[in-house]
Amino acid sequence: MNNRIGIFGTSGMAREAGDIAWASGLEPVYVARDESELQAWNFSGPVILEKEIERYADLPFVIGIGENSIRKAIAERFRDLLRFSNLIHPSATFGRGQREVLEACKGSIVAAGARLTSGIVIGDFCLFNQNVTVAHDCVLGSYVHVAPGANLSGNVHLKDGCWVGAGAVVNQGSNKEKRVVGENTVVGSGAVVIEDCEADAVYAGVPAKRIK
To answer: Of 13, 22, 125, 212, which has the maximum CB count within 10 A?
Structure first.
C-alpha cells in the first residue's frame, strides 16, 4: 500500500488528480461521498466510500474537488484522522527553493505544466491547474484554486478561498503594495485584474469589474 494515495472525489478534478498520481508512480484510490456517487462512477480505479475511510488511514490523501468551500469542509472534518500530502505532476517546474516551500504545506495539487517561480508564499489545500503561472513574490492563502492557464504576474496576494478562472490574468503589484484579491472572491475566466478586488465578490471582464 506504500505506492497508493487517497483522492477525495469522483468527478473531473478527482480524475485529473488521479492522472497526476499515475504520472508520479502512485495508484489512486478514490473516495466517494455516498452510494449515489459510488454507483455513478464510470472510470477506472478503485473507489471506496467516505464512511470506510478509517480502514485507509495509513495512506496519504489529497482532495480532488475544485470547489474551495467543499475542499475546506473535508479538510477540517478529517484533519485529526488523515495525513494530507501534496500531489505534484512531474512536469511542474519551480524556481530555486520554491518546491521546498510548497512541500512544507499540505494538501496542495499541482497539475501538468504549472510554473511557480520564486519568493512565493503558499497556504494549504491549494489547487494549481494545468499550465498555471505564478510569478515572483506572490502570496496565496489556503483553499485557493488557480484554474488552467491563469497567470499571477508577480507581487499578487490571493487571500483564502479565492478562485482565479481559466486564462485569467492578475496583473502585477509592487514590492511595497501587492495586488490583492480578497477572501472568497471569484475572478472569472479570461478576466484581467488591474486593481484590487474586494472580498466575497465576483469580477469579470477586461479590465475586470465587480459584477456581483
So the answer is: 125
d(Cα 17, Cα 95) in Å, to the nearest integer? 23
Q: Are strands 202-204 and 209-210 parallel, antiparallel or unpaired?
A: antiparallel
Closest-CA residue to 19 (of 27, 8, 31):
27
Cell numbers placing 196: 484590487
CATH numeric code, 4-85: 3.40.50.20
Cell output for 210: 465587480
Task: Give alpha helix (H) positions in 48-133.
Answer: 68-77, 98-103
Tens of pLDDT, residue by residue over 70-109, are 999 999 999 999 999 999 999 999 999 999 999 999 999 9
Which of 171, 168, 177, 179 shows the shortest CA–CA distance to 140?
179
Question: Does the pLDDT at position 1 exceed 60?
Answer: no
DSSP code at position 55: G
Q: Is the peptide bond before 28 cis (omega within 30 degrees of 0)?
A: no
Could you read off the pLDDT of 130-164 as tens digits, one per residue? 999 999 999 999 999 999 999 999 999 999 999 99
Whether the full predicted model's pTM is greater than 0.85, yes or no, is yes
More confident residue, 38 or 68: 68
H/E element, 116: strand 115-116
Q: Which fold has domain 91-207?
A: UDP N-Acetylglucosamine Acyltransferase; domain 1 (2.160.10)
CA atoms of 151 and 117, how far apart (whole Å)? 12
